[in-house]
Amino acid sequence: MNPFSGFTLSEGRIECQPVYRIGNTAVTSAEPQPDGPLSPVSASASRSASAQSSGASPRPSTIQDVAREAGVSRAAVSKVIRNAYGVSDKMRAQVEEAIERLGYRPRVAARAMRGASFTLGFEIPQVGNDFLTMIVDGATEALAETPYQMIIAPLGRDQKSDVAINSLADRQVDGIVAISPRVDPAWLERIAERTPVVMIGRHDRSDRYDTITGDDRSGAEQVMSHLVEQGHRRITHLTIHPSRPEPPWAGQAGDEPHVVRTAVYRDRMQALGLEPSVIHTLFDGSEAHATTRKLLDSPEPPTAIFAGNDTLAIGVLSAIAEAGLDERDVSVVGYDDIPIARHPLVSLTSVDQSGVLMGREAARLLLERLEGRTEAVQLQIAATLRERRSSAPPRC
Hints:
- This protein has 13 helices and 16 strands.
- It is α/β, with parallel strands linked by helices and 396 residues long.
- The protein has a six-stranded parallel beta sheet with strand order 6-5-7-8-9-15, with helices on both faces.
- Helix 2 (63-70) crosses helix 4 (89-102), helix 6 (130-143) crosses helix 13 and helix 9 packs parallel to helix 10 (257-271).
């Protein structure tokens, strides 16, 4: 499933139209009103039909119209729309049928002013990273049976995370998931004072927002042990630029995932009496490809490359293949275990940190916050190295 299908691009952000699930009925503010007259089964429906037949613009149905049509109170209609507890099957059926007949569309802005927009915002560093797609997939699964829909706010290459997060907050989303945002923890805590926040990736400790992290230290340790046991000593670590200098932050609370992995790599190389080789690059695979070609042309090219994520690793593999080399010449290990890593023609050794599970847990934590939980939760997801064909003992 592609979580971005049905999204529209607007002013640098991807946004989905809100859809409200009312039992088995889905209504969205983006759906057009019916072209033909509605069946005059009630006074409300007759007014809409009369307006259309006279050429006047039909008046949108209101919650009061639905209540009158269903023979229930406005509060009862609101309960059905919110999927609230205590609604009988008979009442739900009456209201759903009235909504269907009248073509009622809940107004998102009005709902937001009353305290709920039934939208959750996701800030993501980039659209093209398949690991982030896995996270969105997981959240989509978790929200499938709820009235909530997602608004996605991806960052441009030079855009700061606070721009996307502020944009989501300004849209009055009910909660925000931020994926390794490059913002100050104190600033994020101020956002969390008024909007529930779950932060994925960064190793923060906060009593105001929840965090979900992979066990980045264990994952990087497994990568280094794997390569060293295969006999590699010229190991290069290719990773993205940190948002702040590594020392003295490495290994401390608040670290980005790549900073933690880089710190483990440095420690292991130094413990072996070897000189660390860390090369920083941009997020995309094309930059990793170009960087790898330069490495392969150096006097002493690495026999193994530990890539900070699988997107970078795919670019590395492409450069190695173009040079006519294979895993015995240069082994490659990635991080995230995205779906293409398992393809038999790629067979990338990678660290699995359960992206889909992260997304499901992020949605669950937000829903818990919306239901009243106030204490902060910190979850850590286990990391597991998946050994495949891209890593092998060196030729010499």
